[in-house]
Amino acid sequence: MAMITQTFTDAPAPFDDPNADIIVRSSENVDFRTSKVLLALASPFFKEMFEVPQPAAATDGEEPPDTRNGIPVISMYDDRNRVCSKDVLEYILNSFYPAHVQLKKQPALSPKLFNSIVDVTARYRLIPCIRSAIRDPYLLQVRPFMLFAHACHYDFAEEIVSTAEETLRFRTEHFPLDDGLKLISGYQYQMLIDCHRRCGKISAGIARGSDQGWIASNAMLPQNHAPCCRDYRFGVYDWASRLDGSPPPPSWWVECMDKIAQELQPRPHASTISIHVRGMHKSLATASACTICCPFVDHFKGNFVAVLQQKIEAICHQIIKETAFV
C-alpha cells in the first residue's frame, strides 16, 4: 500500500521569512514562519512551551517529523479541533505582529471566522488576539451583542463600553437571540436593557430641549416668524426665556426635533439622527422655500445635526461607562 505524502505550502509575506526560528502550521498544512519571541510575548502558553528543553536532533541524517528544513513546527490543530484554518492563523498572527512588516490590513471578520478565532486563541491563551477581534468594525455594526458578551466574559472594560454603545442601534424589543449571549448572566443582560432605556430617555430629552443652555451655546437657532411659526405655548421649546432672551424657534424646527426625539427614545444612537434627518424632506419643504428659514435648514441638516450627534454620543458613552456590567 503506497504511503500518502503530505505537501506543505508557505504562507505569504511577512510569514515567509527564511530566518524564522519557528513554523506555525494551519489545518490546511500552510506554514507560517514566525518568531518564538513574538509568540512568547503574546501567549503564556507558548512562553512555557519554549522554556521546556527540546529533545536533541536526530543524528542519522533524517529530519524529525515535527520540523521542516530544521525549523521546529507547531501544528495548531489536532484530530478533534480542526478549526485553525490559514485565515484564522493569519488573523491571529497579524494581531500581534509588528505593524511595520504587515503588508495588508486585517480583513473584516465574519461571525463564523470570529468564533474560530476565539476558539483557537482561548485554547492557546492568546488573549490579545481576542481583544483585537472584538474591536472589528464590521462585527461591531452587525453583531454587537455577540461582541458585548465576549467582552464581558473576558472583562475587557474598554470593549464592554464600545460594544454596548453599538447595541443602542437596536430597539430593546428587537434585541436578537445571539448564541454569544450564553456567555453572560441574566443580570448583565438586564443591565444592558436598563442602560439602553436610560440612554433613550436622556437622549430624547436633549432633542426636546431639556438642556436649554447647551442648545443656546452650541447652535444658531432661527427666529420664529410668520408663516413658518405657530403659537407654541405648550410646545417643547416654549421656554419662558432663552439665555439670549429670544423667542422659541419656528414650528418646522420644533417639529423636526420632536420627531428626532421620538426616534431616539427606542434607538439612542447617533446614526439614528442622520438616518431620520435624511427622510425629513416633507417636514423641511416649506422651510426650504422660505427665504428667511432656508439658510437655517442647511445649518440644521449639517452643522446642528453633527453637534447633536456628538452630544448624544457623549452622554450615552458616560452612562454606559458608569454602568457596572461585571
From TrEMBL:
Origin superkingdom: Eukaryota
Domain BTB: 20-105
Pfam families xref list: BTB
InterPro entries linked: BTB/POZ_dom (IPR000210), SKP1/BTB/POZ_sf (IPR011333)
Official protein name in the record: BTB domain-containing protein
